[in-house]
Write the structure tokens for this entry.
Amino acid sequence: MYVAMSTDLNALFRQHGLQVTPQRLAVLRTVAGNPHITADRVAELVRTEIGAISRQSVYNALGVLVDRGLLRRIQPVGSPALFEDRVNDNHHHLICRECGRVEDVDCAVGRRPCLTPSDGRGYEIDEAEVVYWGRCPDCSARRESRDEGAGIRQPGQ
Amino acid sequence: MYVAMSTDLNALFRQHGLQVTPQRLAVLRTVAGNPHITADRVAELVRTEIGAISRQSVYNALGVLVDRGLLRRIQPVGSPALFEDRVNDNHHHLICRECGRVEDVDCAVGRRPCLTPSDGRGYEIDEAEVVYWGRCPDCSARRESRDEGAGIRQPGQ
DNA sequence: CCCGTCCGTTGACAGAGTCCAAAATTGGAC
DNA sequence: GTCCAATTTTGGACTCTGTCAACGGACGGG
């Protein structure tokens, strides 16, 4: 997506049958500039950009943009929903169980491979969401140094 | 997993260093008998089985069982966490965007394939969660009959 | 039998998101 | 430029999920 200029955004909104409002423009721009951002943080940043926005409007804008396919919403366990503007490229996410860091990874298998499960049960599938769970390099290192000489330990949840 | 008899469960708990309590037994049995169940519903069902359980105890039991790998927690967007007792078989989920129905699907690509993304960024990956989003056959049918003769419509969220 | 640990209960609390009704804005028609 | 209907935004109350902390009871090794 990665659009920058307002005129582009105006056209984009119109194409999708959406009215153009300062709130929506700011929300879309903010997510575009800050991948994997929470709704709360969007509100904060938008406020620095246009002065004020209600929490509800942030949710409204995010919701309608996700509906129209301009944004994507991912929701890791134990974290509020995250939004990003990379859509339609079937990329996946790598999330650290400890610090919650999120990174993009391109699809391992090729082009939208996961859209065809072994047995679709008659579902009309439109998206495959893949999340790799693990520990990021930093948290791995921290844990190893902490466990030095300690006994076996169950990984925390 | 699919254990049914209490003696089996007792041993299972002990193997994992857990004390055996009526609450935990009931929670595990309930999830085993009701895949893709929410914590709230677990509480309801457990109450019909053993009379009473606190909300906190349900969360405690579910948490410890997930920690020990006896249960798995999945958390779809817009839904509370769901629990199931199929673990260690790397199966995935098919979720209907409209009615929220959840179904299991076996992994398309083979054995734990998604544990190796194209670029792991140094993460220690221990799980890959795959969710196929779409519309179940029922909701598809309902929608088609509703759209008969109507204009093009954006899919709702 | 004692003591430390584990477990269940209760109640307060927090975070994320939704509902609702009123006020304001948008955009098309004139 | 003005008007009007439809769409949006706003603010506040509210719900739903889940967590924290404190207390008391049960378990189990010694």
